[in-house]
Amino acid sequence: MKRTALSLLAFALGITSMFAQQAIFERQNIVSPQKNDDGTVTLRLRAPEAKKVEVMGDCIDGYRKEMNKGENGVWSFTTQPLAPELYSYRFYADGVELQDPANWNRSRDVRSFMSTFIVSKEEGDCGYLYGNHNVPHGNIQQVWYDSPTLGMSRRMSIYTPAGYEKGGSYPVLYLLHGMGGDEDAWLTLGRASQILDNLIAAGKTVPMIVVMTNGHADNDASPEFTALTQRGRQKASFEESFPEVKSYIEKNFRVKKGADNTAMCGLSMGGFHTFHISLMNPGMFGYIGLFSAAVRMDRNSNKSIDQQIADDAQVSGQIAAVFKAKPHLYWIGIGKTDFLYEQNKGLRTYLDKMKYPYEYYENEDGHIWRNWRIYLSIFSQKLFK
Question: Where does residue 253 rank: exposed (0-12), middle (13-18), buried (19+ CB within 10 A)?
Fold first, then answer.
């Protein structure tokens, strides 16, 4: 009986191994994505029984297009020439969503997965900046810290620059995600570690520790690590709990302290957190960055943001305290078609009226990671110098 069971187990393992190996060899029979000499990229999917296959992504002109069926049931689509950038896409075979089985590279945005590829034309362009190269690499740690304010243990990601293990202390950047992100978002979608590695290696950015928190106060971690019992236990706001993050970092990592060595920036909701955490802690940050920030005040008000700030004695007083502390940099970046453009315009109108100094960067596109990676690349080069 025991021998029979062992034989069945061996047979099952053999079948599993066979299918696993078969999948590997099938993957190698298709090249996707294929980067072509004319700057286009060809995407392919083997789906011989499918009646209709589509590809969707930011590399597609029109965002979603039908693919063409060729020999051996392989469907293909060739993009328009693409500029240097990180691109994402997925397939739909008869309406069923699929990632590219021939492409190991993919990213997660909340619970949505996309296959990815990078286009780079020369060293130093943004595509190059988002890739892994033969440069000294920093390390990533995922750590858990206690948050009595929120009533739970919480997870965050920490980037330490190349050479950290040799000693010395470093300035720290607190890098915050948006509504759809978590403590992994800046690593996977934002390519933060690659950006920092490459800029530090090029001598354009000061080596620094980067802290990527989970800004959702009602759960403890990204979906694959979240304890279901923790959901919905929000007792306070993330902004109120931030001092616990800072305390943990300063106790467990070799950071230089003081505003001259402390920066914070964030995108969208993370920009909202950055804006309000800096108001609650004037003088804590020498460098403040708002990336497509949600700077809303009263959602139900018909007044502009600048008028709302002017009418709110507490907020206007906090802003005055922030600038009285003379931060080295107050940086605002947003795309021309971002749905939060008017909010940021209102904030700038108020800052201009009060003659508070800030730097402003405006580019194309809207509320997308393509912009936020650029903003991090620019902002990080201005820190701690």
Answer: middle
